[in-house]
Batch of 2 targets.
Target 1
Amino acid sequence: MARVEIYTRMFCGYCTAAKRLLAGKDVEFEEYDITLGGPKRAEMLQRANGRSSVPQIFIDDVHVGGCDDLHALDEADRLDPMLTG
């Protein structure tokens, strides 16, 4: 199974939707809460090429993007192959 990382903030509906999609596929993920900023927010900005919106999702260190990007991959039947590594 692929390593999935997701940067989130509290009370973010897009974050919840992305996590729901992953959980529905029985995918375990590492979640980094950047609500209060800090080093994880700086890390996200660097890894996501300056994108500051949440969520920012990475699969095996590949930047997938946000919630809409994740759902687009799923609708195009490209997400499952990425998740199986």
Target 2
Amino acid sequence: MSPEELQLRIGLVVRRHRERLMFSQEGFAATAEIYRTHYGNIERGKQNASMEYLLKIAVALNIPLSTLFAEAEVLDLDRAVREPPSPPRVGRPPGRRR
């Protein structure tokens, strides 16, 4: 596994946990005391996260840091990338017109 792939995997695992807690990216970043844009880049796998930020994220998610790495290792990356965000985005349902 390359470092870039690990970044992406960790970001996807973090997103799943954040969505399970029903946090927006902005709300979660504030809770974890991380700049909103920096957190968004970590979650998308575009930003290399330091151990300090990973620890802040794990504490805000209320899970051990080791869990982030363990789940990232076994994540089915192809399937996870295709999954739509959950909860569904707010807005008009597809196919409905006013």
